Amino acid sequence: MSHAEGETVVSSLKSSGKRYYAWLAFIGLGFLIGGYGVLVTLIEGTSVLGITGQVPWGILISTYVFFALLSTGICIGITSLSSVFGMERYEPLVKRGVLLSLITLAAGGAVIMAGLGQPVRAIPAMVLSPNPSAPMWWMIVLYSVYGGALVAEFVLIDRVDDPPRRLSRTVAVVALIAPILAGATLGAIFGTAEARPYYGGLFASVFLLVTAVASGVALITAVTVIERKLSSATEAVVSEELITRTLGKYLGVATAAVFLVTGLRHAYGLTATNEALATAHQQMLFGGTGLWAVGIGMGVGLLVPMVLMAVPRTRTVGGVLAASVLVLVGMFVSRLEFVLGGQVVALTNDPSNQFPIASYAPSAAELAIVVMGFALFAGLYTAGRALFDLDELPHHEEDTMSHTTHVPDGGETDE
Amino acid sequence: MSSESESLDAELETTTLDGEGVDLSMVIDLQRCTGCGACNIGCAQENNLQEGMAYSSRIIETNGEFPNVSYEYTPTLCNQCDDAPCAEGCPTSALHKGKGGITMHDHETCIGCKSCMINCPYDEIHLNEEDPHPTWESEEATIESGTASARAVKDRAGVDDDVDAPAYYNPNREVSETEHPTRYKGIVEKCNFCVHRLERDELPRCVEECPCEARIFGDRNDPDSTVNEVLAKYNPDVLKADEGTEPSVNYVRDYNGGSYERGTGEPGLGD
């Protein structure tokens, strides 16, 4: 339901005065920078991007993967637990989660469209000249279905009082299955590139889905903790226990799972007899990229949050926020490491190319488009929280399937 | 034109590009290839390729340390793979298997997603990152009062700006649905065995340009073709066979550059 009575988030923000307008100005600046990146790419062509013939996918693709899997992860890892599996403890996160899923999907879509050579014809060409053998085509179809399901789910929560249980459940199931399949096909885009074993073949889909859940949990946790600090309405709905006991532990486990699959990926690669595969892993871990790929991607982004969440003393609201933000930073870096790793070893010794290692550095225009993605995310979320009451719990008819008992103080117990 | 080229031409005339079961293939004889690069230059001329873009290129491998060094030169082009990963992964079917088994590219449906570049194991797909011939709009002369500006040449050629036909318009390429007389930014491009020439029963330009007749072209499904004759005679190789893409470009008679006795400069046993 849209804001109508009592203290609203927007009134809370307005009451914060200068901070609110500074935030809006910050977003505006992001759009300005991003607008420059988009325009210069449209006018000049992709020559303004840092990509080359040997490294055709750069930070725009990795940013798209980052956003698309955030969306995927929120739905698979958080909202579906309540809307499909009836775990009521996650109910306070559902509406905000659905909105976050939608806007991260939009931000990812905007970033990847800006990096296409022919963005204007992209959608018509997908419809009029489809190729069902291409994972990319399926990914776009499935993310479109997913986007539609998210809109429907949000409308049912926001606009319909006591929506039919069957309809809500159907929409929720679609909003669970579609992102699983979409995330898997996103992985297949990389995994089916047999010339680039760094992506891990079939394992790419599994890897991306596991990391999607961790990043999705991190985003919704970070946003919810910040909202609790900004709004007493959120604080009333989202208990401290939900943050520290449920989400904190969930984040810790998810981060550990990502650490495991990342470690396995690199261990397999480093010990591979395939020279190109081993070289790619050596280059990404111990070459010039190692500092950020290992230091930030694995150390700051996985190890530190894992420890923060494992130690009860640091599993406080502040600690959970810190861990979530670190996971998000690490995941952004890891997406770039993943995308570049498959391209870092030159495929041929053509004298007009770099050999044996192909380098890449993002250009100003690329970074500006990335900024646009984050500005779009921030702008859409700010608009969403102003327009809708994101603390509203989903309405539904009596759920006889529920196995969870809701405790008024926010603590829940599974039966 | 030599008798061998004439023979290939005659074969091509009897080959119907649209015919069922036609599988166009190229064999590169590495003993004949001298690495002169005429194929690359001819290709660039034929397809109006700008600097930095090459449908026809080469791989160079230098192994060992002086004085025991081996050098290998392998001419390359799109392998027109039977199991083309670029076409399989193209979301809009811009890359697709076309007539004669050629991996075709439709400029009008390419969205510039670059997934084909990721999927191609041979680095044979290229992105037009900017307009291929932007200099045709330049008012600046290379030598002031000495040469005409690009813009002046375009005007002199009678190219009207209102018509979508810039100075580099190549009517030779306007022969089929998937060939385009002009090239533009934001799409990928690749070799297609000069399908616009094949339509006119002409050999691909690189085949025609090769002064050593190192490139043999024809229908793999014609049992009497020169291609089959050469492939049967020698033990052919393809690039990156383990990728399983089943290339239509084969290499025969691997070149051995020879070696020299250390310190004497005399030919060694390997020569």
TrEMBL record, chain A:
<dbReference type="InterPro" id="IPR005614">
    <property type="entry name" value="NrfD-like"/>
</dbReference>
<feature type="transmembrane region" description="Helical">
    <location>
        <begin position="20"/>
        <end position="43"/>
    </location>
</feature>
<keyword id="KW-1133">Transmembrane helix</keyword>
<feature type="transmembrane region" description="Helical">
    <location>
        <begin position="97"/>
        <end position="116"/>
    </location>
</feature>
<feature type="transmembrane region" description="Helical">
    <location>
        <begin position="360"/>
        <end position="381"/>
    </location>
</feature>
<feature type="transmembrane region" description="Helical">
    <location>
        <begin position="202"/>
        <end position="226"/>
    </location>
</feature>
<comment type="similarity">
    <text>Belongs to the NrfD family.</text>
</comment>
<feature type="transmembrane region" description="Helical">
    <location>
        <begin position="136"/>
        <end position="157"/>
    </location>
</feature>
<feature type="transmembrane region" description="Helical">
    <location>
        <begin position="169"/>
        <end position="190"/>
    </location>
</feature>
<keyword id="KW-0472">Membrane</keyword>
<feature type="transmembrane region" description="Helical">
    <location>
        <begin position="320"/>
        <end position="340"/>
    </location>
</feature>
<feature type="transmembrane region" description="Helical">
    <location>
        <begin position="284"/>
        <end position="308"/>
    </location>
</feature>
<protein>
    <submittedName>
        <fullName>Molybdopterin-containing oxidoreductase family membrane subunit</fullName>
    </submittedName>
</protein>
<dbReference type="Pfam" id="PF03916">
    <property type="entry name" value="NrfD"/>
</dbReference>
<feature type="transmembrane region" description="Helical">
    <location>
        <begin position="55"/>
        <end position="85"/>
    </location>
</feature>
<keyword id="KW-1003">Cell membrane</keyword>
<feature type="transmembrane region" description="Helical">
    <location>
        <begin position="247"/>
        <end position="264"/>
    </location>
</feature>
<dbReference type="InterPro" id="IPR052049">
    <property type="entry name" value="Electron_transfer_protein"/>
</dbReference>
<keyword id="KW-0812">Transmembrane</keyword>
<dbReference type="GO" id="GO:0005886">
    <property type="term" value="C:plasma membrane"/>
</dbReference>
UniProtKB/TrEMBL annotation, chain B:
<feature type="domain" description="4Fe-4S ferredoxin-type">
    <location>
        <begin position="69"/>
        <end position="100"/>
    </location>
</feature>
<dbReference type="GO" id="GO:0046872">
    <property type="term" value="F:metal ion binding"/>
</dbReference>
<feature type="domain" description="4Fe-4S ferredoxin-type">
    <location>
        <begin position="101"/>
        <end position="130"/>
    </location>
</feature>
<dbReference type="GO" id="GO:0051539">
    <property type="term" value="F:4 iron, 4 sulfur cluster binding"/>
</dbReference>
<feature type="region of interest" description="Disordered">
    <location>
        <begin position="240"/>
        <end position="271"/>
    </location>
</feature>
<keyword id="KW-0479">Metal-binding</keyword>
<dbReference type="InterPro" id="IPR017900">
    <property type="entry name" value="4Fe4S_Fe_S_CS"/>
</dbReference>
<feature type="domain" description="4Fe-4S ferredoxin-type">
    <location>
        <begin position="24"/>
        <end position="54"/>
    </location>
</feature>
<dbReference type="Pfam" id="PF13247">
    <property type="entry name" value="Fer4_11"/>
</dbReference>
<keyword id="KW-0411">Iron-sulfur</keyword>
<dbReference type="GO" id="GO:0016491">
    <property type="term" value="F:oxidoreductase activity"/>
</dbReference>
<keyword id="KW-0408">Iron</keyword>
<dbReference type="InterPro" id="IPR017896">
    <property type="entry name" value="4Fe4S_Fe-S-bd"/>
</dbReference>
<keyword id="KW-0004">4Fe-4S</keyword>
<dbReference type="InterPro" id="IPR050954">
    <property type="entry name" value="ET_IronSulfur_Cluster-Binding"/>
</dbReference>
<protein>
    <submittedName>
        <fullName>Molybdopterin-containing oxidoreductase family iron-sulfur binding subunit</fullName>
    </submittedName>
</protein>
